[in-house]
Amino acid sequence: MGKKLTYEAVYDQIKQNIKDGVWKQGEQLPPLEQLSAELGVGISSVREAVRILGKQKILRIEQGRGTYVEHELSEAPAARIDFLERATMLQLTESRLIIEPELAALAAVKATEEEAAAIMETARVMKRKIEKGQDFLKEDMRFHELIAKASHNEIMYHMLERISDLLIDSRRKSMKWEGMDEKASSYHFLIAQAIMQSNPTQARALMKCHLEDMLVEFQKGEGEIGV
């Protein structure tokens, strides 16, 4: 799926403006409402793009004051910025590998019939959307959230909830990898099936394989930069 999400287009435009010198290091960006009007997009898309650029240290967000250019992109080439973002995603996926297989195993043991059915239905909706070439980010996120809830472990669930922003960034990248959406959909269905069958060993193993696939792709990206 090569189509850009709206906030990604805003992200690219803000980076381009900084690169072109429209906004220089230390300068304040226009208010989000003004950027929203100028770019013809919703303010939520602008806010999301600014948030990601803030995490990458390209922008500096000061509560109550505004948003400022932290670094000139000429001082941090695009390849380097992309590497830093991938490094974050690599570490995130490594962390998920520690947590999520066990959540899937717990869900296979503790999920109610209703919870297991909701997990399976989300996997099916995601599959249908992929077949139609539709955006499936919402279902992808919901699938993993439902499994975390079905584990009935409040601490683990809230740990994932706290990194939900990073999880969205991870999905945003992985959705663009060729063949990954179909592969993810297949894993989701098999994981859901294992949970419905109360098979923790299978649920754990499938979730581990699913995340290991993502880890390999992020590692490939790191190697391409040559760092």
UniProtKB/TrEMBL annotation:
GO terms for molecular function: DNA binding; DNA-binding transcription factor activity. CDD domains: WHTH_GntR. It comes from the Bacteria. Keywords: DNA-binding, Transcription, Transcription regulation. The keyword Transcription regulation applies. Residues 4-72 form the HTH gntR-type domain. This is HTH gntR-type domain-containing protein. The lineage of its organism: Bacteria, Bacillati, Bacillota, Bacilli, Bacillales.
